[in-house]
Amino acid sequence: MLRATTGWEALMTKPLVVLLPLLGLALAASLEEAEALLRAGNYAQAALAYEEVLAQDYRRLEAHLGLGVALFRAGRLEEARFAFDQMLRVFPDRYEGHFNLGQVYLRLGKPEEAAEAFQKAVSLKPTEEAYLALAAALGQAGKAKEAAEALKKGFSPERSLAFRLALAQALYAAGSRAEAAPVLYGVVNQDPKAAEAWELLARILAEEGLKGRALRELDRGLAQVEGKARARLLLRKALLSEAPEPLLKEAYALDPGLWEAAFHLGQIRLRAGDAKGALAPLLAAYRASPEPEVAQALAAAYLRLGDPQSAYRYAGEAGPPGTFLKAQAAYLLGKKEEALRLLEGLSTPEVQALKGALLLELGRAEEAVGVLRPLYEAGRDPQVGVNLAAALVALGRFGEAEVVLREVLQRLPKEAAAWYNLGLALKGLNREGEAERALRQAAALGSKEARALLGR
């Protein structure tokens, strides 16, 4: 009799024997030879040997099962799917066939089909592994509530702690935090070293508004958990702490593979304005796991450090969340048309401000005014006002430009660009004396354009 175990192990109850390589299909392969090839890792030859057995007798259960396993281990997933499908056509009530077919579907990225196969396996033999696999498939299919219900249905007093933890995780994913809490307490009471259970319990308590209790439970867990497993508890504590940096450093030192610790450390430094200090932990996090949010943070750090080329690269790797950062980097690299295209579909004030500046620099002053005027009127941002006035000057609307610039200079009396644009507006209005004074003020504040104009 055969059984399928968790993962991809499908073992024969018959002992495996040492086998010389097959001499060719002309010599009928025995089931023992096929099993030996499978055990030795000669998956391609094992598959041929199992095929030979089936060619002689298509009702050999062991050969169907062995063929599917050999094909899977050889990476031939579609052939493995067909092999297990064929097994079930001959033996429709075999648990092993449905369970292993579900595993193939999971590897093929077809969780819906996997869930259907696992559901049939559960109906034939309600094993722990089948329920766990069913819940995993439903979770991957985006059916969190169904996954939780499946594990609740499969729960019994003799279930393992791993099953109970999976049930709690499924309940949490389904939004049933309060229902997950007693399950987790049951796990940590039986196994005080269950780091995952402590971490999820603290997360649930914090999300329920019980931050102090969450921190106390984390401390209880840290008093029990040893070694590398402590890192995730330290990370959770850091995220709830008023002083997270030492905790994040300790977590990362314990487990350098815990990229989230390095990522949050970099984020904290970035938010504090220390882009240079943020770079090392962010790069470490990216090397460990190049997640989109890490790439996005790296792009922001490089922008602040004046490295638009690196910012452009990492913003691109961040995907849609990094689009605005990529547009900023493209603008700094002189790729203005590309930057403008990247901004399409985005509508935050920062996006509109950059879009207006790009339109202005591309000589599309009328469009720039259309973008910048409502933005300026909504927030009276001085920098937006300077660009709006520059667009108005470019269109010859000098009086409107002067009104905006006078308002800007009341807020930022030392803004060189505002004084320069005011000088241009006053020149356009034929108020030469006032224009010269404005340009001299701009030059004194460092405007090279004003100095050049005055030097003519």
UniProtKB/TrEMBL annotation:
Residue stretches of each TPR repeat: 61-94, 95-128
Annotated InterPro entries: CellSynth/LPSAsmb/PSIAsmb, TPR-4, TPR-like_helical_dom_sf, TPR_2, TPR_rpt
GO molecular function: identical protein binding
Pfam families recorded: TPR_14, TPR_16, TPR_2, TPR_4
Superkingdom of source: Bacteria
SUPFAM superfamilies with a match to the protein in the record: TPR-like
Coiled-coil stretches: none
Keyword annotations from UniProtKB, A to Z: Repeat, TPR repeat
PANTHER family named among the record's database cross-references: LIPOPOLYSACCHARIDE ASSEMBLY PROTEIN B (PTHR45586:SF1), TPR REPEAT-CONTAINING PROTEIN PA4667 (PTHR45586)
UniProt-recorded name of the protein: Tetratricopeptide repeat-containing protein
